[in-house]
Amino acid sequence: MDLKEFINNAFGKYEESPELIDFKEELLTNLEDRLQSLEASGLNRDKALKEIKTEFADINKIAEEMSLAKKKEVFEIQYMSLRSFVTKKQAAIYTVLGVLVAFGMITAGLSYLGSGKVEALIGVLMVFLAAPLAGFVYMGLTQETATRNPMRPLRATIYAIATFVLIFGALLVPMLVFGEAKSLEGALAVLIPFALPSIGVLGFLMITEADYRKAWVLKEAEKHNEWAKNFEASGNAQTFGIMTAAIWILAIGAFIFLLILKLWIYSWIPLVVALAVMMFLLAYYMRKSS
Amino acid sequence: MDGQLSSDILRGHTDTIVLASLLDRDRYGFEIYNRVLQKTENLYELKETTLYSSYKRLEKEAFIESYWGNETQGGRRKYYRITEKGRELYQQKLKDYEFTRKILERLFMEE
């Protein structure tokens, strides 16, 4: 067994980190020199190697320090930072998408102000909001981060297309109502060819989704899910689930009701209220279980 | 040398020994280790693991800096350089040691 192997074995059970790789290289050159000097003093190679191994019996003490302390440090730094994972090309794409959205917003606003027509605003949004958002979905899903592995491009493409169709279809409803003066029922009917298939596709993808979290995140999660077990075991999770479902059914019902009454500007209120109530409930039940 | 070197005392001064090794020039791990061996006439060796922990500690506190040498053959060596802050620490440690030595002498002497 040569030195490289010895070092690799000694650090084998520790997760590779830039610091550890660095340290192994430092160690290797130093030990090579040490080996040479031992050989020069008259020891044969085997004896010299053995000597080094004895000297380094507690090598795993350093490994432990490096691996635990550094790991924590590195992860703390990288946890929130994408920088080391976003390539220049990706950064350029994100920027272009962001600019497109901003461009869409401004153009939509201008065309509405210029023509006074809501359909002009929506028409612009249909292209300049839906397309870049789909792009963001694709980029986000295929983006590797400190905590997540990237999704396969094909799957992410399907997500992106479904997102585009969904937003496009959803915007088509007000478009038809304002532009073509269609009745709301007729306009809502266009949701069937657009929204339904895309929701179906998205739902299917989400249900069959793999876990993209990286190994170390899973390990950390294991430690932190004590409260989740309590939440589950106390029955609070089920109560919360049922109440949430009820709240959303009410909220969506109210949303559709307001749409039918053509109270467009108020239609978002039930959704926001539902979200807020859900959060309060979650906080309440989490507290109750801990 | 009739007496024996107390390994505990030596180990307690690892940081100072490392700093002292870097006063005249930058050195890499094996050189620092070898210097200890030679200065102690091969009688005593400071464990390499102790030394590595010391490098890491000193570097983290910015008493020393490290850089890779540009060796043309074989692996790269990691050199350590003492910083201004490190020199100050060294001077302080020297004073501390001098003081401790005097006190110990007093304590060790017969009345």
Could you please describe the fold and organization of this structure?
The complex is a heterodimer of chains A (290) and B (111). With 290 residues, chain A is mostly helical. Chain A has three domains: 3-79, no CATH class; 85-222, no CATH class; 225-290. Chain A is 79% helix and 0% strand. Chain A is built from 14 helices and no strands. Chain A has helices spanning 3-10, 18-40, 45-55, 59-79, 88-115, 118-128, 130-142, 153-179, 184-189, 191-207, 215-224, 226-233, 236-260, 269-289. The longest helix of chain A has 28 residues, at 88-115. The radius of gyration of chain A is 29 Å and the shape is elongated. Chain A starts with a helix and ends with a helix. The model of chain A has no long low-confidence stretch (mean pLDDT 81). Chain B has a single domain (7-108), classed as Arc Repressor Mutant, subunit A, CATH 1.10.10.10. With 111 residues, chain B is mainly alpha-helical. Chain B has a three-stranded antiparallel beta sheet with strand order 1-3-2. Chain B has five helices and three strands; from the N terminus they run ααβααββα. The radius of gyration of chain B is 16 Å and the shape is globular. The interface between A and B is medium-sized, with 21 and 18 residues. Chain B: It holds the Pfam family PadR. Chain B: InterPro entries: Metal_resp_DNA-bind_regulator, Tscrpt_reg_PadR_N, WH-like_DNA-bd_sf, WH_DNA-bd_sf.
